[in-house]
Automatic annotation (TrEMBL):
This is Glycosyltransferase. Coiled coil: none annotated. Residues 11-163 form the Glycosyltransferase 2-like domain. Keywords: Glycosyltransferase, Transferase. InterPro entries: Glyco_trans_2-like (IPR001173), Nucleotide-diphossugar_trans (IPR029044). Belongs to the glycosyltransferase 2 family. It holds the Pfam family Glycos_transf_2. The lineage of its organism: Bacteria, Pseudomonadati, Pseudomonadota, Alphaproteobacteria, Rhodobacterales. It comes from Donghicola mangrovi. It comes from the Bacteria. SUPFAM superfamilies: Nucleotide-diphospho-sugar transferases (SSF53448). GO terms for molecular function: glycosyltransferase activity. Transmembrane segments: none annotated. CDD domains: Glyco_tranf_GTA_type.
Length: 290
């Protein structure tokens, strides 16, 4: 592809301080074979140390976005390409070997396509509670698309005119959910494509899992607090979050992916996390930080 040709699609990958996983992600893409009419853009958020030699990935473009946050990095990636199709991945994902072939096959079937995301552990068995929790509960992508109307940007395809019509990603909120639902309100359709597959590592321990949910809880409140009766609705949701821990114990103990000991540690993590999330949400209502 020459510099004057418009690419068929652009793959946009935000990155910050996760060099090893980015290398794994790119290695998977290049192993599957990057088509000559598709460009891959890594948008680095000012990592330290900076990204080094990327010559193992011929044709890769690396740009730096100084404004922090994956939303800003994705927006920068869109501005760096003229491709009419925008394909989003996360730096810690491992695309399947046929990811490009599947992306090309499904990309024009809808305005937004959400792919599947499976979870894998980066350490050997047995799973700890955090890994077990992610194994059971993380990335229910089919339900996200079909019931909630959004796809995760860890594995999402869309089109440039849809992006422009909906507007850019917004930092500080759940940007993939907020953007997709905003796009759907403008008339975009969305489908789930299970054949478009990536794998995502589970959170390795309680600290990593807690950090994830602190961020998600902050982002969810930032998006919710502008609604009418926001505080009352948030309190009600906090109560439901706490109760959901008990309700979802059944999913843990019925999971075929966990051993008996893993089920017990996962159940304790589930109850601990849902209780904490409920407490964080109540703190937010009275103006305390999480």
């Amino acid at each position: 592809m020459t510099t004057t040709e418009v690419p068929f699609a652009a793959v946009i990958i935000p990155h910050f301080n996760d060099h090893t996983r980015l290398d794994r992600c790119l290695s998977a893409l290049w192993r599957g074979g990057v088509p000559s009419d598709v460009e891959v853009i890594v948008v680095d958020n000012g990592s330290q140390p900076p990204l080094g030699d990327m010559s193992d990935f011929p044709g890769l473009r690396v740009v730096v976005e100084t404004r922090k946050g994956a939303a800003n990095a994705r927006n920068r990636g869109v501005s760096e390409t003229s491709a009419p199709r925008l394909w989003f991945l996360d730096a810690d994902c491992v695309p399947a070997d046929d990811w490009f072939a599947q992306a090309r096959a499904v990309c024009d079937k809808a305005d937004i396509i959400g792919g599947d995301v499976t979870v894998f552990d980066e350490s050997g068995p047995p799973r700890n509670g955090a890994q077990g929790f992610e194994t059971v509960f993380a990335f229910d992508c089919r339900s996200y698309v079909q019931e909630l109307g959004f796809a995760v940007t860890a594995n999402m395809l869309t089109r440039r005119h849809i992006f422009y019509r909906a507007g850019p990603f917004i930092d500080g909120v759940p940007e993939d959910k907020e953007w997709c639902q905003r796009a759907v309100r403008t008339g975009a359709d969305i489908i789930f494509a299970p054949e478009l597959r990536v794998a995502h590592p589970s959170r390795s321990d309680w600290s990593a899992l807690r950090k994830k949910w602190v961020r998600l809880t902050r982002e969810a409140w930032a998006a919710h607090r502008q609604r009418r009766f926001a505080s009352g609705l948030w309190v009600a949701r906090a109560v439901m979050v706490a109760l959901s821990g008990l309700v979802h114990l059944r999913r843990v103990f019925q999971s075929s992916k966990l051993t008996g000991a893993e089920k017990r540690s996962t159940a304790l993590t589930l109850l601990r996390l849902r209780g904490l999330r409920s407490a964080w949400m109540l703190r937010q209502v009275v103006g305390l930080s999480v």
